[in-house]
Amino acid sequence: MKKKDLYKFVDFLSHAKFKYHEEDIDFLNLVEIANHEYLTSAFFHQLDKNDFFKTNSDEELSAYLYEIFTINTNRNIQIVEQLKEIVSILSSAGIEPLLLKGSASLVENDYEHIGIRFLSDIDFMVHPEQIEKAYTLLINAGYKKVDADFIVHDTYHHLWPIEKEGMPVMVELHRRVMGGNSGIEYIPFSAETSYKSNNPYFLNVWVLNPTFKLYHAFLHTELDDNNYKLKHLDLRHLYDFTVLTEKYYGKVEWDELDRLVRSLGLINNFQAYLYMAKVLFSLTTPLTVDNKKVRSDYKKILKSFELRGTVREDFYPLFPKLQRLYSKQKLKDIYHYKKNIYYPYYVLKHILHQLKTYVFCEGCFKKVMFK
Question: What global pTM score does this model have?
Answer without folding.
Answer: 0.88
